């Protein structure tokens, strides 16, 4: 269950990064509020995860999910363009996330 909470925390990290972009520098109240709600949910779930998982495991998983999620959102919603070499490094991020999970013993 703690891993599910950590994954959801990472997803909320992607959500707050996305809504922050849509808030246009916190000038749009609805997206600004959504950003703060998603940030709060993300941090609370990360905090819960670190009660059970070591910080050295929970934090990189959380940031990795947020990073990969934000990359995908950027490409899909904001039409960001990434080079093939960048996609290789995104793949490395995914391998790192999965590798950390598989080798923790938690």
List keywords for this structure.
flat; single chain; mainly alpha; 106 residues; 4 helices
Number of strands: 0
Structural class: mainly alpha
3D shape: flat
Number of domains: 1
Strand content: under 5%
Q: Uncertain regions: pLDDT < 50 for 5+ in a row?
A: none
Task: Describe it.
The chain is built from four helices and no strands. It is mostly helical. It has one domain (2-102). Helix content is 82%, strand content 0%. The chain has helices spanning 2-22, 29-52, 55-77, 84-102. The model has no long low-confidence stretch (mean pLDDT 97). The protein is flat, with a radius of gyration of 15 Å.
Quick rundown:
This protein is mostly helical.
Strands, helices and their partners?
Layout: H1 2-22, H2 29-52, H3 55-77, H4 84-102
Helix pairs in contact: 1-2, 1-3, 3-4
């Amino acid at each position: 269950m703690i891993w599910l909470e950590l994954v959801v925390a990472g997803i909320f990290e992607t959500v707050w990064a996305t809504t922050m972009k849509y808030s246009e520098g916190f000038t749009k109240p609805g997206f600004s509020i959504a950003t703060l709600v998603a940030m709060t949910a993300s941090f609370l779930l990360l905090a819960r995860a670190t009660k059970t998982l070591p910080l050295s495991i929970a934090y990189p998983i959380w940031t990795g999910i947020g990073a990969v999620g934000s990359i995908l959102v950027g490409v899909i919603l904001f039409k960001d363009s990434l080079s093939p070499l960048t996609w290789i490094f995104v793949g490395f991020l995914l391998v790192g996330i999965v590798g950390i999970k598989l080798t923790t013993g938690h």
